[in-house]
Each structure stands twice: as C-alpha cells, then as structure tokens.
Amino acid sequence: MIKFWNNRLMDQAPYHPRSSPADAVRLRIRATEMLIGVGTFAAVMHIAVVILLGIVLWPAVDQTWVIAWSVALSSFILFQGSLILRKGGKHLGVAEASRVQRQFEAAALAVGLSWGFAGVALFPESEPGRVFFLVFVMGGMAMSAVSQQHVSVRACLLSICPGIPPLAFRYMFSDLPFNWASGVLLLVYTAVLVNMALRLHRFSHRAFALQLEQERLLDRLEKQTQALDAARAEAEEANSAKSRFLAQASHDLRQPLHAISLFVESLPDAETQAEHEHIMTRVRQSLDVLTKLFDSLLDVTLLDTGGIEVRRTVFRPSDIIAEVEHDFSLVAEACHVRLRIVPSSLAVESDPVLVRRMLQNLISNAIRHSEGGRVLIGCRRRDGNLSIEVADTGSGIDERDQEQIFNEFTRLDSTRMGTSATPGLGLGLSIVKRIAGELGLQVRLSSRPDKGSVFALDGFEVADAKRVQARMPPRAVTGVANGASVFVLDDDPETLAATAILLKRWGCTVETSQEWRDLIDADPDVVICDYELTPEKTGLDVLKELDGTAPAIMISGHTSTDLRREAISMGIPLLHKPIRPAQLRSALLNALAASDKAAGGSEGGGGGSA
Predict the structure, then answer these.
(1) What is the pLDDT of residues 452-510, one digit of tens each?
(2) Distance CA 251, CA 237 (A)
C-alpha cells in the first residue's frame, strides 16, 4: 500500500513525467539527506517526552513495563540520532543513501511499535487524567513525526500507524466514558495524519523536482555562458590573428613590388647588356616571390572558405614524388642540393593533387634550408599505414620553434638558410598542416639543431595497387604552333595588351576585345576570358552562350567556392591572378589539344619562351 501511494503521489508531481531514472535517484537521495538533516534537537526532545511520560504513568501502571519501555524507546531514538549526527548535512552517494534510509525506517518502525505498546500495556484505565495525558502525548508525537519525516512516506507511516491505532482500540474496549467515540476519533485522527503526511510528501517532492530543474537550468546556463565566453575569446583571437595576417601580408606584398619598381626604374639606365640581363633577372625573381605569395594566400583563402574539395583516388605516392622531384631538380641544382628519392610500389587512397601541393611546400623548404646538403624523399610503413617523409641535412630546428613554425607568417631565422636561398613567406608549413587536416593526415616533425629535419605526412591508408589509375607523364613545356587562333576577352586594356604580346611571341594569332559581343562573331581555336567583365555580365555567362563552340580558359581574381565549382561543372580550367606565363602556356596547350580546329598540333615549333 505504501508503495502504491508513493507511486501515485510521484505521478502527480509536475516534473515526474519528464524525469529520467537519474532524476528519480537524485530525488530519493535528496529526500534521504533532508530526512536525516533535521538535527538532534528533535531526538533530545523526544527522549525528554518519553521520560516525562514515564514519570506521569509511574504510579498508575506496572513500573517494570515503564522502565523497559522507556529504555527500549530511548535506544531506538538514540539510534536515529546517531544517524543524524553521522550522516546529517553530508552529500550521500546512491548506495549510502539507500542504506541510511533503510536503517532510519527500521528505527522508525521500532519507535512506532514502542508507542503502540505504550498505548496498550501502559494504558492507565483507572485514572482518566493520566489516560488523557497519554493520548495527548502520543497524538503530539505522531504529529511531530509527520512534520519531520514526511519526506519519506515509509518512515512517516511506520512511525504513525503502529502507534495510534492500538491506543484507539484499547480506548474503545475500556470502561471510560465515551470510549467508542474517543476510539473512533483517534482512528480518524490517524487517517488525518496519514493524509497530511502524504500531501506534505507530495509537496516536498515537487519542491525537490523544482530544485533539481533549477540546478539543471543553472548548470546549462553556466555551460552556455562558458561556451559564449570561449566563442568570444576565439572570435577576438581570430580577429587579432586576421589583423596580424593582413599586416604581414601587406608587408610581404609591398617588398617585391617595391623591388620591382626600383629595378624597372633603373632598367633604361643600364649601360651594358650584362647589366640589363642582371636587372631583368632580379625583376623575374621579385615577380616569382610575388606570385608565390599570391598562390599561398589563395591556398589560405580556399582553406578558410572551405573551397578545398577533396577528390580521393588510388595512386602511388612514388609517382607524385617523382613528378615533384622533376619540378625541383633545377632549383636543387642551383642551391647545390643533392635531391634523391626512394621508390616504392605501395599505393594509397587520397587526393593526389593536394598531396602534391603539400610535397611541393615541404621539398621547397627542405631545399631552401639545406644548401650544399642532401634532401631525401620516400615512403615508409608506420603503424599499419603509410608515411611520406622528406628528410634534409640542414641546420635543423630548435625544439622551442617546432610548434610555432606551423603558424602563418612564422619564418625561421635567416641563418638557417644558405646564401643563395630566398626568404620563406611563412605560409608553406601552415598550408601543409591545414591540408593534412582536410585529408585526415598528421604532420610529424623530427629535428635537432645541426642534425637536419624530417617532415612526415602520417596516416595514409594503404590501398590495392591494382586499383591505381595510370597517370599522364608531366607535359614538357614547348612552344605553341604558329597560326593558332586565340581570342582574349578582358575589361582591362593593359591586361589585353600584355597578354597579346605574350601570345604572339608563342606564335599565336591573337584577337583582343573589351566587348563580349565581339566574341559572338569570332571563330577562335581557344578563348581566354576574364571572369569580371561588366556588372551585368560575367565571363561564365559569355561562355555559356558560346555553348562549348571553342575551348576556353577562365582567369579570375575571385577565389569563391561557387565560381570554382561552376567552372569545374562546365569543364573550364580556372586560373587565379596573378598567373605565371608557364601556367597560361600549359593551359593553352591543353585547350589546343582538345580543340578540333587546332592546326599543326601543340607540338609544333615557333614562339619564344615566357
């Protein structure tokens, strides 16, 4: 019955239907903590009442029973008091709370039975005044039990039900006046106390549930506040990093531009052909630095905007390594670096284009910092996966610098580089680490000062070599056949003039225009089109109207992901400004190879170098 009432009352609690089993456990623990948190004053007063009642009943009943009852009841009350002293005011665990509650309820049952014994065995029937005093004391103690123990229905009912009903029945069968009426009233009083205990229990559990909900809301609010503080701090740090990034980028962009301006200004005053060639060489070097910086900034922008699209395929890393080694062979020779590769037949599944980009940055760094030394590139099995490692015999990296070199615009001390090496831009390793993250790889660095460095790309999953698709060998850069017709569409006249001069040196027949409608009546082999033409018309809009009648090359200063995806969907190569002449020539060769109108093929002679 008690379990039934417990379940019924808990179902009436406003938060119970939504409460989880964990919440129910917390409610029970909270109720037990409150049950034993009333303090020892009530236990002391309870014993005092027992002693006072024993003194009052002493002359009217068997004194042996009075002593036995007083000692037994006081012992049970003292046991409850010891629980209060030992556990009161403490946070209890689940098992401990369950054990304490069982002990307290057992003591409550013993107390209730003791009062029931007093109502029968110590009933002074011959003295109505003492009977009234007994009824008054037992009724008051029952009310006290309700007020103090209602948080536990079982403890409360175990204190009340074994005590008052025996007294009521003893009263009914006594010879006292109004015995039956008094007995019934005592039973009604018991029912009132039980109802009061149940209602107070319900209210207390509602209060506990509300308190738990409040604590949960406060905890959630605190977590949200912490998350907001962390997000604000992250945003402030990102804004500060962006400011530093832009300031450093502005400085690095101005440096080569300033050098180019000075070299161009001094070019007309060159007195000899050798001096003229020297100035032009320095101009080309500054332009190369400027272009590399723009390429790196483009990579950073694509990573920040999610413009990097991973296209996984199965390939042999050795093929990529061989291509990159071929690209850097002349650079290594100029820096007196012996560049070696270790071939491997293993295959992996990843994005070969992005892997090549990372290797380009790592090998470029290794060569620049190892003048007169060696650079070794190869693959190695590690923890069931494959790693690509780039090892150099440079001056190494101090341990305190090994973390920060992966930050944007962090550059090593110039003393680490050879005399012929150009300063780094401080973006290469940051780009490597971020691209590795996109591919699910890790970048590992092992280095000691004066002992060289090893940069490794870890985490490549080994794939079946039979799934490797044949890779086209790197195309040799050759001149464009005389007579190839190229239409250049751009809104900038200076760009049109410069592009036309370059294409004519390659042997092309060139037509230029700032008006896109002129392209409609033209019949070129290849179209080179700028993206930004007019506010109303973009280069892609124009090429859509041509509907693929001629191969096209798109050039743009925009780095948006949407533009990149649309160009890919239309099968149009997209080159980002500033572009190197070699990039333009490679794209032009590919476009001519795809053109049905290409006369003389892309292997013909004519034309000079970029």
Answers:
(1) 888 888 888 888 878 786 655 544 444 455 678 889 998 888 888 888 888 888 888 88
(2) 21
Q: Minimal CA–CA distance to 402: which of 447, 363, 370? A: 447
Distance, in Å, from the CA atom of 379 to the CA atom of 69, rounded to the nearest integer, reads 90
Number of other residues whose CB lies within 10 A of the CB of residue 308: 19
CA–CA gap between residue 517 and residue 514 (Å, rounded): 9
- 103 CB-near residues (< 8 Å, 6+ apart): 79, 83
Q: Provide Rg for the chain, Cα atoms.
A: 46
The closest alpha carbon to 492, from 526, 548, 524, 539, belongs to: 539
Helix (H, G, I), strand (E, B) or coil at 389: strand
Q: Where are the beta strands (DSSP E) in 396-520?
A: 442-448, 452-460, 462-463, 485-489, 509-513
Compute CA 524 distance to the chain's CA centroid, rounded to the nearest angstrom: 52
pTM above the 0.70 mark? no
Per-residue three-class SS string for 320-368 = HHHHHHHHHHHHHHHCCCEEEECCCCCEEEECHHHHHHHHHHHHHHHHH
89 Rama class: left (phi>0) / alpha (psi -120 to 50) / beta = left
Spatial separation of the C-alpha atoms in residues 128 and 105, rounded to whole Å: 33
Strand partners for 315? 348
* Beta carbons within 8 Å of 243's beta carbon, 6+ residues apart: none
User: Measured between alpha carbons, how far is 106 from 554 in angstroms, rounded to an integer?
Assistant: 88
Asked if 337 and 370 count as a contact pair (C-beta separation under 8 A), the reply is yes
CA 390, CA 456: separation in Å to the nearest integer? 6
Q: Is the dihedral of CA 158, 159, 161, 166 positive or negative?
A: positive
Query: Each residue of 304-351: pLDDT tens digit?
Result: 666 567 788 888 888 888 888 887 787 788 788 888 888 888 888 888
Using DSSP's 3-state secondary structure scheme, residue 442 falls into strand
In angstroms, the CA 196 to CA 209 distance is: 20
Distance CA 59, CA 159 (A): 27
Which two structure tokens, joined as six digits, stand for 502? 């370059």
Q: How far apart are CA 511 and CA 490, in angstroms?
A: 11
Q: Identify which of 422, 424, 425, 419 has the alpha carbon closest to the alpha carbon of residue 371.
A: 419
